[in-house]
Inverse folding.
């Protein structure tokens, strides 16, 4: 009897404790938490013709435009590329297409899809605009065209529709009949696109990439003994632009003849010939303006030109492309740069060298042409640099160096939804 009473009392105590817990206020669960978004990149690589070779590094996947992805890892070279490709990866993603025809070759960097951008060109003759849409929805693009005399009104420049995961080619020479430099500003009213200008001459085929306008630009890759070095400046805004140009040669920085007090009218583009004042040195350019402008440089010789778009500055830079060429590094800072250069030959050995680049100057150093499957070049520096790899042995090509630093990604607040499963 006593045992049963003890058991009953224990049961009553347990039930009472359980009932008491039900009256306690519920502890609120956290509804938000900080999440760091993953850093992913997408680049579109335009095909310039038959037999192009695609060089890709840092990609997780490669796909022909409109096809399913194929997994990728490490430096990759794909030959005989006749159609555009889309590559995906992290912050170190880089790629470009090497076009070889006759005795010349040109380099076409892969570009990210944007809702707007500007391309500057020395002329419209023989030039096609390739508009690539890598996304699963339709893109609609409007073109604004500018020449040395102001805005160019062209029939068929608005409402250009590009189907999902496809491309469309527009003959710029049909839209622009006048001679002289021309700028193409594109804006996507729906979706986004990567736009490349392909120019065919009697000797070679070259390409220019779009870039975002800004008040400061860095242009790398004017080689030694260049007989052509034409700076192209486009002003898509409504106010006149005042532009200054600083050349960084192999021994000092200076303002080249024609590079000071440059005035660019609104909705116009001008060409500034700098070749005679560069003294035949490997040179980088720093262009500053009081309003947003778009720039590019045409370099090479009279029979083979190469177009170079602006590049960024960073303490860590890299490129992956064909073997050989000359590495040019420019130091726009106010202190000397202590630099380490590593060249990883695919299928070969890695070579590492060090150098010091005085403030305001450009270092030019040849790379060994011994990599049939390409070479990965990486540069680390004590100060921010900009640079490119140039090739003048078989024509002229310019491979701009890109930053390999991990971008700073701010965390965002994410709300927990208990009803989601």
């Amino acid at each position: 009897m006593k045992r049963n009473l003890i058991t009953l009392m224990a049961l009553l105590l347990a039930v009472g404790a359980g009932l008491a817990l039900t009256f306690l206020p519920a502890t609120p669960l956290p509804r938000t938490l900080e999440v760091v978004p993953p850093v992913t990149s997408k680049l579109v690589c335009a095909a310039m013709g038959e037999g192009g070779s695609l060089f890709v590094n840092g990609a997780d996947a490669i796909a022909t435009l409109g096809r399913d992805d194929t997994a990728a890892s490490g430096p990759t070279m794909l030959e005989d590329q006749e159609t555009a490709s889309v590559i995906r990866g992290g912050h170190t993603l880089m790629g470009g297409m090497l076009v070889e025809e006759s005795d010349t070759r040109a380099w076409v960097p892969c570009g990210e899809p944007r809702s707007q951008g500007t391309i500057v060109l020395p002329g419209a003759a023989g030039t096609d605009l390739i508009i690539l849409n890598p996304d699963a929805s339709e893109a609609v693009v409007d073109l604004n065209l500018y020449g040395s005399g102001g805005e160019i009104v062209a029939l068929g420049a608005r409402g250009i529709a590009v189907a999902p995961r496809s491309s469309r080619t527009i003959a710029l020479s049909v839209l622009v009949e006048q001679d002289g430099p021309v700028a193409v500003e594109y804006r996507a009213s729906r979706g986004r696109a990567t736009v490349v200008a392909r120019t065919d001459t009697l000797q070679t085929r070259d390409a220019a990439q779009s870039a975002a306008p800004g008040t400061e630009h860095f242009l790398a890759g004017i080689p030694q003994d260049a007989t052509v070095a034409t700076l192209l400046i486009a002003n898509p805004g409504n106010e006149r632009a005042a532009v200054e140009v600083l050349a960084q040669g192999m021994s000092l920085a200076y303002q080249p003849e024609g590079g000071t007090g440059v005035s660019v009218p609104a909705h116009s583009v001008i060409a500034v010939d700098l070749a005679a004042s560069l003294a035949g040195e490997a040179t980088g350019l720093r262009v500053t303006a009081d309003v947003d402008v778009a720039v590019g440089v045409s370099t090479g010789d009279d029979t083979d030109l190469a177009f170079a778009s602006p590049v960024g500055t960073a303490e860590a830079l890299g490129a992956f492309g064909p073997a050989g060429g000359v590495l040019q590094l420019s130091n726009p800072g106010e202190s000397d740069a202590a630099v380490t250069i590593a060249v990883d030959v695919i299928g070969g050995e890695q070579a590492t060298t060090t150098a010091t680049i005085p403030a305001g100057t450009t270092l030019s150093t040849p790379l060994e042409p011994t990599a049939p499957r390409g070479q990965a070049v990486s540069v680390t520096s004590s100060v921010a640099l900009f640079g490119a790899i140039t090739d003048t042995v078989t024509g002229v090509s310019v491979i701009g160096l890109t930053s390999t630093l991990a971008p700073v990604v701010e965390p965002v607040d994410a709300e927990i939804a208990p009803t989601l499963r």
The longest strand covers residues 283-300.
